[in-house]
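Appendix B, record 7
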Amino acid sequence: MSTENRNTVDEADTKPWVRRQGDLDDQPIKEFELTSARRALRLLKSKLGRDRLLELLKDEIEEADAFMHQELQRSAGQQASGTVQLHAHGISAGTFNRWLGAAFDREEVMLAAHPEHYVIHNVPGRPHIVETLGDYVCSFFMVGWKESEHPTSQDDATVGRRSSLTLADGTVFGWVSTLFEEIPDGFIATLTVTLPSSCAPELVDQHLEHFAVEFHSWILAAAEQR
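Structure tokens (predicted):
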């Protein structure tokens, strides 16, 4: 065995780990932790309520607003985008699209989809969202989300949306778009975010991870509730 391979094996053998007796890895324990964290956050968010959460996060939101204005100035109109695709099985694009459109009026469902959803409520046609973006807690409105729906097939099975990410003062700092395309036994969700170029790649990559978590949660919830 070469020195390089022996070092790799030695490091793997000596790296600390903890797992339940009989398990192949610690993934079940991580799942327990995730379930507990979601349960704790659901309790805290429901007890505090939207208004108290917004008051608690007031300073963080003001800091995020200042940061985004700064990044827009630094980027001088240049933007950067990133896309993640999810493969959903066992539910159609049309079914999920209809579920998601209605779910924006169900605040508890929207909040539960991601641990860093602090506020999501539907100001008619203009969802208001407070969530983590990079190191900041950002408050923004999705302007045009409902209006941008455009079926690309007669049965409404392939649907795209594009909406601006807009600060409370009306400043547009980015865009998000979604496209749900039917495939046999499911659909492909193509999720794109666009931000000022000076934010890339860290904030773009982080938001793609955010997309993956929340849409994973929403698609499974839609499949269970149809």
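Remarks on this record: The chain has a mean pLDDT of 89. The radius of gyration is 20 Å.
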